[in-house]
Design brief:
Layout (H helix, E strand, L loop, with lengths): L6 E6 L5 E5 L10 E4 L10 E2 L2 H8 L1 E4 L2 E7 L12 E5 L16 E2 L6 E7 L9 E7 L3 E3 L8 E3 L5 E5 L8 E4 L11 E7 L2 E7 L2 H4 L9 E5 L2 E7 L3 E9 L8 E4 L1 E2 L4 E6 L7 E8 L28 E2 L23 E4 L1 H5 L14 H9 L4 H5 L3 E4 L37 H15 L3 E6 L9 H10 L23 H18 L3 E4 L7 H14 L4 E4 L18 E3 L1 H10 L6 H8 L13 E4 L8 H5 L12 H14 L5 E5 L18 H4 L4 H5 L1 H15 L17 E5 L6 E5 L9 E7 L5 E2 L12 E4 L22 E2 L3 E7 L1
Length: 808
């Protein structure tokens, strides 16, 4: 008799059958008995799952002495007939077998659901656990679908298939449901054989994951009629509460009806424009549903809300925003981004803004329209706003960064002058229009990996919208209490439709996705396709990490750009002489090969809202307090900006970084409004640094900057780096191969305490080079005095310094 069963996974499938997978083959003559823990009722007998069906859930199956690798077409609908797909793994050298027809999968007929390739078991060491992936030529690793039961982390932020010989021929079984309403309640199966007994919850996530409702959700006003639609597949009742008076003195309570798709609807022959509403939902409560008829639920599709708890506001006003003035979004390679927070920008801005508008959209619009405002003077062409979607707060006056969203369609009520009148709709659109008039693209920081409190989605269906641990608690790789199940069709639709709404009705130009690793590559690819259909120029940036992993390298074959944390960390070390030659060359060249497939796929930055700010990281002052920077702090910061604004890729700075912003060493200031608010007196106090950055930005945007703002990857010799033995100092020449004409840009960096000489014979005619910058100054017409000496046809760079030259 076996010592244990070790149940691996159990879930319901579309045909109202359950499937259970064991951790190893079942080798006994008879099958175990199966019952329902909650009702103590026996379930239909176990039946072995056909091998091919097993392969659908694991990527392979074993039959007749062969192993058959299997890829399902529905997971990758864009793959065309005749594509070259290979199985690669620890058993064949991974990518070494690409172009070896023996390992290529074949599709049996253009309409076949499966791509397969088979091998005798003798090909493999069956005593070893192997890992494999599928590779689509020319250079795409196909992601492992989330439904795969043997999906295992690869240690680099991605996943592999596990090939475990203990699970090969007889480890998957089907069984029948306990009751007709099995999907509405939690079910735990009991597996019994002789004296052996094991239990496992049966997940409803798979059957909920096939949801395909085609009609619109939310509130729809058409022909002076109003209809309501909300997804709650396991609810037993859904009730609408609606009223015109905010004190609810005229409230009406109306039931909705469900259809077979799990959507509840109500149709009224009245135009309820301007009414307030919320839902209450009841059903069988268990850890995977969390129904509570006493809890008010804000419609996830509400276009405006009075606050994070609701109520929603029924409105079509967003439809009447009018056609936006034409705005040409900068090409990605031309972007220079400033990351900003609404209140931080305007709290102390020297602009005529009424005090009651200094905390929101209306004040930001006034700030942007001021032709002398900080962002215009800096010269950037894109603003990346920290979250502006409805977020968790206790009071509209409360300060926070906004990374705890409670609704994805409504602009934040906390930034509105009259949220009860849905003023946030016009006020946020005014922000976008003002930015466009000022030549600024608008990128929004969006959070689709977790939600804040109150958690309205949980009350609709916890298992549909969230990743759950075996004990039905929230998975928490975000560190914020819950992880959205983004690959669920209903969640994915909510994400895409809310993003499309922001583009279509507010004319937003792009998005930066918080903790995009938790969203997953497959969903990110679908987001890209949907948004580029809406706005081909849309800017898409991933924060590619989470506590779970790092998805950056996996995004190389997509149209996504990523924050480059490697750049951030390296440059902070480099300016303090802790870097190396290979590293600085790699980042100046735009992080090719391992990170960025095309130049603007890397967003280079050295400071963001998270963690300590730049100056507090590199300062010589005690306690990481850079509020009174030393001369060395300033020189290192200038060197950093010279690196940031010459490196190939998209440069991003944090608002205030150019005038030596400090947070007095504080590591996390997400609730500290006074610490985060920009102190514009420092722009006067450190005017030299602000001017230095302005001039570098102006240079990068100029015709000279064409040598840095590359649309496509150039040859390996486009950037030539010259080093000094024993130092990390570097002299980098852009367009060294002459592929973009006769012009050259040369930059040199020396983070060390002694002077360095870059030798001779470097094939540069320094008599034709015009020095335009050093560590303190920048003049595109050329520095007139105090220039870097050229000795033996090579520059001699002083300690802790940088310089730049141009050659026409």
């Amino acid at each position: 008799m076996p010592k244990s069963v070790n149940l691996l996974k159990a879930f319901w499938v579309e045909n109202k059958q359950g499937v259970v997978f064991l951790s190893r083959n079942w080798n006994q003559r008879s099958l175990p008995k199966l019952s329902c823990l909650e009702t103590n009722a026996p379930l239909q007998p176990l039946r072995p799952l056909p091998p091919q069906y097993t392969g659908y859930w694991s990527g392979y199956f074993i039959e007749d002495g062969k192993i058959h690798f299997l890829l399902h077409q529905s997971d990758f609908p864009d793959i065309q007939p005749g594509s070259k797909i290979y199985v690669t793994g620890s058993f064949n050298g991974w990518k070494d077998v690409v172009d070896n027809e023996e390992w290529r999968l074949q599709q049996k007929g253009d309409r076949s659901e499966f791509w397969t390739v088979s091998f005798p078991l003798a090909y493999f060491d069956t005593k070893t656990t192997h890992y494999f992936r599928f590779f689509l030529k020319p250079e795409q690793w196909l992601p492992v679908p989330t439904r795969i039961i043997n999906r295992t982390p690869d240690g680099f932020g991605g996943f592999n298939y596990e090939l475990n010989w203990n699970r090969g021929t007889n480890y998957a079984f089907t069984f029948g449901p306990p009751t007709e309403d099995f999907i509405k309640r939690k079910t735990t199966i009991v597996f019994e054989y002789d004296t052996l007994r094991e239990e496992m919850p049966v997940s409803s996530a798979e059957i909920l994951g096939i949801w395909n409702y085609q009609d619109r959700l939310g509130v729809i006003i058409e022909n002076d009629c109003t209809s309501f639609h909300i997804f709650a597949p396991r609810a037993s009742s859904v009730t609408l509460h609606t009223y015109r008076n905010l004190d609810e003195s005229d409230k009406k309570v109306l039931p909705l009806k469900a259809d077979d798709s799990g959507v509840w609807s109500l149709f009224l022959t009245d135009n309820l424009e301007g009414f307030y509403y919320y839902y209450t939902i009841d059903g069988i409560f268990d850890p995977t549903t969390a129904f509570d008829p006493n809890v008010r639920i804000l419609d996830p599709y509400a276009k405006a809300a009075v606050g994070p708890k609701g109520p929603g506001i029924i409105t079509n006003r967003y439809l009447n925003l009018g056609t936006p003035a034409p705005f040409k979004v900068p090409y990605w390679q031309d972007l220079i981004i400033a990351e900003c927070h609404v209140r931080d920008l305007i709290q102390h801005a020297p602009t005529d803004i009424p005090s009651d508008e200094r905390k929101g959209f209306a004040g930001l619009t006034r700030f942007i329209k001021d032709k002398g405002n900080y962002l215009r003077s800096l010269g950037i062409n894109a603003i990346e706003l920290q979250p502006i979607q409805e977020y968790e707060y206790d009071s509209p006056q409360e300060y926070q960064w906004g990374y705890m969203p409670t609704n994805y369609f409504s602009p934040a009520s906390g930034y509105a002058t009259a949220p009860e009148k849905a003023s946030q709709i016009e006020e946020f659109r005014a922000v976008v229009d003002a930015c466009h008039d000022a030549g600024l693209a608008v990128i929004l920081d969006v959070v689709y990996n977790h939600v804040g409190n109150p958690n309205h989605l949980m009350r609709l269906d916890k298992e549909t919208f969230f990743h759950l641990a075996p004990d039905d608690s929230f998975m928490n790789w975000s560190g914020c209490g819950n992880d959205l199940r983004c690959e669920s069709p209903v969640t994915k639709r909510l994400i895409i439709e809310s993003l499309t709404h922001l583009v279509r009705y507010y004319d937003v130009d792009g998005f930066r996705f918080d903790l995009a690793d938790l969203i997953g590559k497959s969903v990110l690819v679908e987001i890209e396709l949907a948004l580029k259909l809406e706005k081909p120029s849309v800017i898409l940036i991933a924060e590619p990490w989470s506590f779970h992993g790092h998805i950056g390298p996996a995004l190389r074959d997509t149209g996504w750009s990523s924050w480059n944390d490697g750049f951030r960390n390296f440059v902070a070390d480099y300016v303090r002489a802790h870097g190396n030659q290979e590293g600085i060359a790699y980042f100046l060249k735009g992080s090719p090969h391992g990170y960025a497939r095309f130049p603007s796929q890397t967003v280079n930055y050295t400071e963001s809202h998270d963690d300590r700010c730049w100056l507090d990281i590199i300062t010589e002052s005690p306690n990481n307090d850079g509020s009174m920077p030393t001369t060395r702090d300033i020189r290192r910061t200038h060197m950093m900006f010279a690196i940031l604004l010459t490196a190939i890729g998209i440069p991003m700075i944090a608002a205030g970084q150019d005038f030596l912003r400090s947070k007095h060493g504080k590591n996390n200031t997400y609730l500290d409004g006074e610490e985060n608010a920009l102190n514009y007196m420092r722009m006067i106090q450190f005017a030299g640094t602000h001017a230095y950055v302005r001039n570098w930005i102006k240079f990068r945007k100029s015709d000279w900057g064409n040598l840095l703002r590359l649309q496509s990857r150039q040859s390996e010799s486009y950037v030539r780096c010259i080093y000094v033995n024993g130092f990390s100092s570097v002299l980098a020449v852009f367009n060294a191969d002459g592929s973009m004409g006769a012009s050259r840009i040369a930059v040199a960096f020396n983070p060390h305490e002694s002077s360095v000489h870059f030798g001779n014979g470097n094939e540069i005619n320094w008599q034709n080079m015009r020095q335009i910058a050093d560590t303190e100054r920048f003049n595109i017409d050329g520095l007139e005095s105090g220039k870097i000496p050229i000795i033996d046809n090579a520059p001699m760079l002083p300690p802790l310094s940088c310089a730049a030259w141009i050659m026409e």
